[in-house]
Amino acid sequence: MLTLTIPSPPQGPPHPIVTLLPGHQWSSKVLLPRVWLGLDCGQMAGEENFKEELRSQDASRNLNQHKVAGHPHSRSLEMLLRRFRAVHTKQDDKFANLLDAVGEFGTFQQRLVALTFIPSIMSAFFMFADHFVFTAQKPYCNTSWILAVGPHLSEAEQLNLTIPQAPNGSFLTCLMYLPVPWNLDSIIQFGLNDTDTCQDGWIYPDAKKRSLINEFDLVCGMETKKDTAQIMFMAGLLIGSLIFGLITDKMGRYPAILLSLLGLIIFGFGTAFVNSFHLYLFFRFGISQSVVGYAISSISLATEWLVGEHRAHAIILEHCFFAVGAMLLTGIAYSLPHWRLLFLVGGILVIPLISYIWILPESPRWLMMKGKVKEAKQVLCYAASVNKKTIPSNLLDELQLPRKKVTRASVLDFCKNRQLCKVTLVMSCVWFTVSYTYFTLNLRMRELGVSVHFRHMVPSIMEVPARLCCIFLLQQIGRKWSLAVTLLQAIIWCLLLLFLPEEPRWYSPEQGSQPTGHRPGPEWIPSGVRKLQLELKSMTILVLTLGEFSLAATVTVFFLYTAELLPTVLRATGLGLVSLASVAGAILSLTIISQTPSLLPIFLCCVLAIVAFSLSSLLPETRDQPLSESLKHSSQISFQKDVALDSSSDGSFRNKVKDIKTKETSSDDMSEEAAKNVILNAQILRLDPYPVSNSALKQFNKEEANSQAP
Fold it and tell me: In sequence order, what are the residues at sequence separation of 6 or more whose Cβ sits closer than 8 angstroms to the Cβ of residue 140?
């Protein structure tokens, strides 16, 4: 404890440099901890007295350094330090101060977060709809010509007379017997011999649902059109990332969100009425652009309206509802008998989103960057009125245009600005890895013969707790190390897949040494081998599901982290650029897994994940840091492992502390506790009079007294 005696008038106020703590009475001899005094070098005996005070603290702390290192309450001090830095960050960020006055997470912000739920659900609904409308169907050639001579033939008799059979007795799917001018008795007696491909289309006698396969006859050499639909969707994501990134930064977050929602309504609802497969491809192309456009613009809006942990919680909840949308799609697709009904239901659900025209706000940060100060003030005042708050006039007056009236930026700045270029390249590498790995694991699960409903329902259910776990990670270890931890988990699961043995092959007696494939008929497989196959398949599916669990958390941390790293003027454009890397990773996964052995794609997952894990360590931490508004702020990003101390104190005072520490810590004279006191003193000079509660102060006083006890 530091005893400070300051003379004061008998009935006058205390000395101006001493803060009177709540619940305490003034005395001419005040006993307070050093860190609560808020000593100001300009108000004391000057900088030399301040240095002497620091040296005296260092001497006393060095005597008890071994005790301090093992102090049981050091974690609480670290938490206080974190809180001080968070408050300091808000003071440096004008908008953080304004949003505090508006209401940090009041009714307005809660409503804004809730508005993201339904579009997120419907984005997932339309994004994964392709997986359920291409239900596999077994086709047979349409041979209705025989009904002219045998109108009373059953379907089985018709197939038996007009469709060739395989050696095992099954009907061939893409061949038929050519029609002959015989009567039914002659056909039954002599049979048919001349075969050809299907002449009059196909029939699907075993089909239980109407899908695109039997709607547009995507069979017998037309199966590649199914891959075309996936390519068109990826192309839409690719182009939409660029277009909506630019639109969101040039026109605003509000118009971009409305445009993407309009696309979901038109293309989502309209898909139910297409009359050709090419028209279906066009509508899917439009839907994919709307999905990625909403993702970019909504995250930009939430990032700029919310502060601190509320921002992280909002983005995590938005992603959780994205997983809910995938679950909703799986349930509806399982119950509906027609693919058109699926899009009709989805289209009806998105029609109420038209109301967002009247209830969605614009981002005040973006308005300020574009020089629209009046509009920014109006939006902030409206938000304050919804929260039943009043913004002090002096805070609103601080919203002034920068020296240049409008902050201009373009895509070329990602090449010109060195630090921004580094951020974008690193995050693009991470996003490429996450996308490639996710698609590879999903396609690997499809290879194992897992049903489409299982492949979507189970991972979607697990994604919700995976994303909610991010709340704990982000609060405890920040954005940077949360990304590293989730990537490390993905590396572990991919390595396990490499060491899991492949499902054993079996050879039928008829084939001899020729393999019959990974999944021969059960009649050729002994019970022991069958049991081993089932166990290996179950273990592989479990590891694949856990891998997707880790990647879901990685995606959530990644979106939050990227949005905080990028400046406001190019935030959406940057998100669009890293989304390009995501699409590239997905395309590479689709290409490699169809043309190479099964272990090579998994091996590439491990290599890419290790590279991404290494590069993520180059990124700076963004927790409790102000958002970058312009390229000038972005250029100050330092690619170092730790940036906490130098970014926590104000300019002039930081130079003083830095000078003292340079002289005295070079010989390890300053203890860890003394360094903490320096940081705390530096923070308190710019904090409110009562930054923490009385209970926290009493606890800290008790700890200080215990540390000084002999």
Answer: 159, 163, 171, 173, 202, 203, 204, 205
- The rounded distance, in Å, linking the Cα atoms of 57 and 55 is 5
Which residues sit opposite 176 in a β-bridge? 196
With beta carbons less than 8 A apart as the criterion, state whether 600 and 398 touch.
no
Tokens of 112: 């804004």
What tokens appear for 76 in the block? 């609480």
| Lowest pLDDT segment from 73-77, 144-148, 476-480 | 73-77
Highest mean pLDDT among 406-410, 530-534, 650-654: 530-534
Per-position DSSP letters for 650-669, written without gaps between them: -HHHHHHHHHHHHHHGGGT-
Q: How far apart are CA 533 and CA 501, in angstroms?
A: 10
Tell me what pLDDT residue 99 has.
79
What type of residue is 613? F
| Lookup: tokens for 633 | 């702020």
Cα gap 464→585, rounded to integer Å: 24
DSSP 258: H
Q: Is the pLDDT of residue 267 over 90?
A: yes
Give, in order, the Cα–Cα distances in Å from 406 to each of 372, 416, 572: 9, 19, 18
414: CB partners within 8 A, 6+ apart: 420, 421, 424, 570, 573, 574, 577
* Distance (Å, whole) CA 33 – CA 4: 10
For 282-335, the pLDDT digits (tens) are: 999 999 999 999 999 999 999 889 887 888 899 999 999 999 999 999 999 988
C-beta atoms surrounding 532 within 10 Å: 15
Classify 687 in phi/psi space as left (phi over 0), alpha (psi -120 to 50) or beta. Answer: beta
Per-residue pLDDT averaged across 38-55, rounded?
Answer: 41
Cα separation, 371 vs 629, in Å, equals 13
Task: Please give the structure tokens belonging to residue 315.
Answer: 């983005």
Match 């893409």 to its residue by tokens. 174
Whether the CA torsion 52, 57, 63, 69 is positive or negative: it is negative
Q: Would you place residue 526 in the very low, low, confident or very high pLDDT band (cuts 50, 70, 90)?
A: low
**Which tens digit of pLDDT belongs to each residue from 115-163?**
988 899 999 999 999 888 888 778 888 888 888 877 778 878 888 888 8
The DSSP H or E segment spanning 579 is helix 571-593
The radius of gyration of the chain's CA atoms, rounded to the nearest angstrom, is 33
Q: pLDDT at position 436, please?
A: 92
> In 10 A of CB 536, how many CB atoms?
16
Please give the single-letter amino acid code of residue 650.
Answer: D
d(CA 22, CA 36): 13
Euclidean distance between CA atoms 68 and 65, whole angstroms: 5
3-state secondary structure 142-205: CCHHHHHCCCCCCHHHHHHHHCCECCCCCECCCEEECCCCCCHHHHHHHCCCCEEECCCCEECC
Helix axes 107-115, 373-386, angle to 10 degrees: 100
At residue 231, the pLDDT reads 87
H/E element, 615: helix 599-616
Per-residue confidence (pLDDT) for residue 704, from 0 to 100: 54
Tell me the average pLDDT of the chain: 74
- Which range (90-94, 272-276, 407-411) has the least confidence? 90-94
Buried b / exposed e along 114-124 (16+ C-beta atoms within 10 A) = ebbbbbbbbbb
Q: Which helix (H) or strand (E) holds 140?
A: strand 140-141
Chain center to CA of 169: 51
